[in-house]
Design a protein that fits this description.
The structure holds three protein chains of three kinds. Chain A is mainly α. Helix content of chain A is 69%, strand content 5%. Helix content of chain C is 73%, strand content 0%. The relative contact order of chain C is 0.06. Classes of the chains: A mainly alpha, B mainly alpha, C mainly alpha. Chains in contact: A-B, A-C, B-C.
Chain lengths: 654, 100, 170
Amino acid sequence: MVALTWLLWLMPLLPLLGFLLNLFVIRQERAAGLLASAMVVASFVVALVAAVGLAGLPEEGRRIMSVGWAWISAGTFQVPFGLMFDPLTAVMALLVTGVGALIHIYSIGYMRGDPRVVRYFAYLNLFITMMLFLVMGNNLLVVFLGWEGVGLCSFLLIGFWFERKVAADAAVKAFVVNRIGDAAFILAMLAVFANFGTLNFYPVELGGVTQPGFLERVPEILGLTFGPSWQPILVVTGITFLLLIGAAGKSAQFPLFVWLPDAMAGPTPVSALIHAATMVTAGVYMMARTEALFVASQATQGWVMWVGALTALLAGTAALAQWDIKRVLAYSTISQLGFMVAACGMGAYGAAIFHLLTHGLFKALLFLAAGSVIHGTNDTQDMRRMGGLRKAMPTTFLTYMVGALALAGVVPLAGFWSKDEILAHALAFGNWPQLILLFLTSLLTAFYMGRQVALVFYGEQRDPHYHAHESGRVMTVPLIVLAVGTIFGGLLNLPAFFPGQPLAHWLTDWLRPVLAEEPGSFNFWLAALATLGAVGMGYLGWRIYTRSAARVKVGAKDPAYRFTGDIWDGMEEAWYVDAAYSRFVVQPIRGLASFLARVFDPQGIDGLVMGVARLVGVAGAGVRTLQSGYVRTYALIFTLGALLVLGFMLVFTR
Amino acid sequence: MVPTSYYILLSAALFILGVLGVLLRRNAIVVFMSVELMLNAANLALVAFARQRLSVDGQVLVFFVITVAAAEVAVGLALLVAIFRTKQTADVDEVSTLRG
Amino acid sequence: MDFILFGVTAAIALIGAVAMLLSRNAVHSALFLLMNFGAIAVLFLLLQSPFLFTIQLTVYAGAIMVLFLFVVMLLGAEQVEATPDRIAWQRPLSLLLGLGLLGVAVVAALRGEMAAAPPGGEAALNFGDPAQLGALLFTKYLLPFEITGVILLIAVVGVVVLNQRGRQKA
């Protein structure tokens, strides 16, 4: 047991060491990449060992708690700095370190030759550290530390090529939009502390004193309400609603998703790691961890479902109309996150985590493969300039196909099993609106992936200005590893086709101590319908864009514009949400800032200060006129003074 | 016997006339004379009070006042003459270079 | 009887003062002031101080006013105020202040013990005896007396110094 607690701390500290070394000591590109990757690989191994160790414990006792020190100790506000390891954490940690390790190795190839690559690896390692703190934190504040830390790393890495204004702006946008979610998170923390007296998830022992945890105490506050007497709101609803806003900020749900497409201005491995596999899933993890609170509030669960489902559909439509290869994947990520959030809303937390895992695998795969395409086409990102790349880049093509099929939800790849479980849950719980929205989204997903594959890999190369070539091994090997993971990932949580099946809902069982969920049932007809729909739509998308490949040109409208008209533009702009922000939020604030800087500060504040000086001058000039030089004037003033004194004496003394 | 207040009123009137002289006349010598008038008014008041209180001290004080006034007049007029030599005028308003 | 004497003398004093104030010619002002000093000397006498009466006439009327006249005639400064006053509001303000002071004085004078007549009686008979004054001068007020002498000396020295034309030119 003691050894296991050591492992807990080793996991985040190894990448932290990598960060510090890369920041202060290392100067060479080669050493930086190798060190950073080695640290994360080591971290993965440690996570694996810890997970195995955890499995060795009996099911009820699968929670290792390790408290480092009393971080905040202020009277009744006690917050320890501690890590914990339970089945949910294990799953998340393995995902983060595993995919992270592969992406580090990939980055060695992708970022070759970049002048600031050492700093890149430092930031990447710091990110892994912070993400591990997030998933392993044993109280809300450590989770928040990780939450903010990954937000910081996201900012640093999106704006890594800060000479490009696009990247710098995108980094700031990501940070600011995230901040809205963070503010809600802080309020939620305050509410939790106010109602439970502690931020710990589970009971913690520090210095002989046992601090309580709030997750087991949720039933105690079920009756509490707040708000005006004519509209009382349950406290749990308030807390969970704030947490939902926090998750929406981090996991790019409506209306806080606008930062994610712009974040594609960062290096592609960063997009793969942060904005596909790990950071954006933090919101889902957080909702799963605080499941006890969410389950207690029906009102919020409704909101969660709707937000998830609507975001999924909205982002799905937007992904259809994008020209940039990474932006398609970005909107796709938002859409899939919507799936996960909707699943949480429906109470299917196990399915949400399962989809989180599989999505982490195949989305990272897709991004890395896209990076390979970008690398191999001399930094082209516009799909209208690509085409016919399957001949020049076979490995990339094959792995991309695996990823695309998985995302579309074609059996037997991982994406099918996880997505289907969510749909099955929707059907089983009778959430018809969500079912329809998510089903439509799946169809759209298949369509836009078909479109993308057609535009990139089929047909003829439309832009002759580059010579397409396959990427080196250091980039293709991670792709292959991820593809294998995608193919076999479904085995993690197969539904029970027949009783007594050995490999049935393994993940749900593993997560049961934390999520207290029973596995769902398998609906054959729904699965079949979904798969057929996916295959059909995928083929349709592929067909339309291979047929009209000749009409795909930079500057021209999309061939599908013929059928849809101006709606296409709306989809491309993600229904103008971003434009709305720009008009109603950003412009007024800019106007206010401009007013303050150009008018209020120089005229108001400076005017005030200068005015005081001028006032003194004027007063001085005024007083100076008394010194006329004429003795008789002075004598007059003497006399006046004398008169006043005498008068005073006369009036006030006896 | 004449009440003391009459003397005091007279003294006050003379004093005020002296003040007005200082304020209104521009000839430096006349200003000086007004100052002397003020001193005399004060002397009168002192003597009146001395008589009322039957205290000779008041008269001794008047003696001193007269002596010092004499000394002051001498010095003051010497100053005036010295200024007159430079400015060629005894107008008080001419001596106004110490202005702000 | 006293009242008549007082009244006449007071009138002369006031007229002298006012005339001094009003005359354009400095010599006339000096002469009127002389008249005023004479009246005041008589008033001293009325207040039972013969010594001061003498001193007033000797020093003030006899020495100080003569000095004034000398200086006026030396400087030829009779007609200084031919030009109108430069300070516009000097006259009205001064008159106003004068009235104010008069008001204060009247109020002060009519309050309290001063309104009564000075006491008569035994002590009053021998009041103002020069011998008394002299005794006081040489006992209680000896120091001020000596200092006054010094003051006069200083005055003499000062006058001499001030009237030396600049001897040492650089």
